[in-house]
């Protein structure tokens, strides 16, 4: 689950609610990792064998991912339900749920 950057400043109640949510997911064994991501970043692209590195921030910084939660659940529906609960806690904004492939 990823969340996009927002202009809203968090308040103390948000930290309390998120703390409870994180504790619940950790106790249930579904939360594997969380973290915030720097807003700028570096873009690495390749075209015709040439590699280009560009420092951020980028023009559409509001579209960048601001944080993530890596969860292990039994179904897509369960992941969506956790994302819905997250959005209810943090309010307006956008999150993206994507499956991670691999071991």
Verbal overview:
This protein is α+β, with helices and mostly antiparallel strands and 103 residues long. It has one domain (12-90): Dimeric alpha+beta barrel (Alpha-Beta Plaits). It is built from 2 helices and 6 strands, in the order E-H-E-E-E-E-H-E. The protein has helices at 12-28, 76-90, and strands spanning 2-4, 31-36, 42-47, 50-55, 65-71, 95-96. The strands form 2 sheets. It has a 4-stranded antiparallel beta sheet with strand order 2-5-1-6. Strands 3-4 form a two-stranded antiparallel sheet. The model has no long low-confidence stretch (mean pLDDT 87).
Give the key terms:
single chain; alpha+beta; Alpha-Beta Plaits; 2 helices
Describe the secondary-structure layout.
Blueprint (H helix, E strand, L loop, with lengths): L1 E3 L7 H17 L2 E6 L5 E6 L2 E6 L9 E7 L4 H15 L4 E2 L7
Antiparallel strand pairs: 1-5, 1-6, 2-5, 3-4
SS strand fraction: 25-35%
> Could you state the oligomeric state of the chains shown?
single chain
Query: What's the alpha carbon Rg, rounded to whole Å?
Result: 16 Å
The main β sheet shows up as: 4 strands, antiparallel
Helix content: 25-40%
What is the general shape? Answer: globular
| Secondary structural class | alpha+beta
SSE order, one letter for each helix or strand:
EHEEEEHE
Give the total of domains.
1
Poorly predicted ranges (pLDDT <50, ≥5 residues)? none
Q: Assign the CATH architecture.
A: 2-Layer Sandwich
CATH superfamily, by name, is Dimeric alpha+beta barrel
| Count of runs of 4 or more consecutive helical residues | 2
| The CATH C-level class name | Alpha Beta
Task: Classify the fold: give the CATH topology.
Answer: Alpha-Beta Plaits
Number of E strands: 6
Mean pLDDT: 87
**Main sheet: strand order:** 2-5-1-6
Distance between the termini: 18 Å
């Amino acid at each position: 689950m990823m969340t996009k950057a927002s202009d809203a400043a968090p308040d103390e109640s948000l930290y309390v609610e998120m703390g409870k949510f994180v504790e619940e997911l950790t106790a249930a064994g579904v939360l594997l990792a969380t973290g915030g991501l720097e807003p700028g970043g570096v873009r690495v692209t390749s075209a015709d064998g040439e590699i280009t590195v560009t420092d951020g921030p980028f023009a559409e910084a509001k579209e960048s991912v601001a944080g993530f939660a890596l969860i292990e659940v039994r179904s897509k529906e369960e992941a969506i339900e956790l994302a819905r609960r997250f959005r209810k806690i943090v309010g307006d904004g956008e999150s993206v749920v994507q499956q991670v492939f691999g071991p």
